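Hi U.,

Before I forget, here's the chain from the pilot set. I'm dumping it here mostly so it's searchable later in email.
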Amino acid sequence: MIRKHLISSPTSGEAGFRWRAAEVTRLEGFTDAVFAFALTLLVVSLEVPKTLPELLAAMHGFLAFGVCFALLAVVWYEHYRYFRRYALETPWAVILNCALLFFVLFYVYPLKFLFTAIFNHAQLQVSEVRTLFAIFGLGYAAVFGVFALLYLHAWRLRAVLVLRPVEAIRTQASLYDQFAMVFIGLLATALARTLPDTLVGITGLIYFIVPIYFTIAHSISGRRERALHAESTD
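Structure:
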């Protein structure tokens, strides 16, 4: 189902891109509830510290919690923006949304374990480090793989959604972004399994490619938008 009644009267939630959704749907409400539950699972401690040593021990987990919180917030916002932009409730979009929630919930504990181990300087065997980075890489690729399929779905329905040229450019750019994140996750997984023992610790540095990629990719898409605007002005 595509909410055509909202397409005819879109809202301006993003400069240059009409938001076709105006109200929070049951699908989005359900998704928000799952994300809230996932954040609950990330809480440093489910019990309020009763002594100062307990408080200090809990505070050691704040950095790991902060990173995990930020990563979940990025995923949540990507989901929020997608459904605001396209207002898709087709069966395939619902299936992909449920797959996304499955991966988010499934990888909450591995995510928390990984960053807790990093910030607490946990002593791990090389085989354990390989496994942790491989699990994170596969989860990273799975989450953004779902987003890639969602954007591919929107791209295929671009005529029904009546995407304007700028919107089509941004949809295409977002599709490429998701596939790039999948590639980075799979690359990190492959390196975690194949690098020599002395180098396996640098696997996490692969994710520093992400901001470099977005800087270059968005510069290119920005030039395309400016060129399109110049053509329309002429």
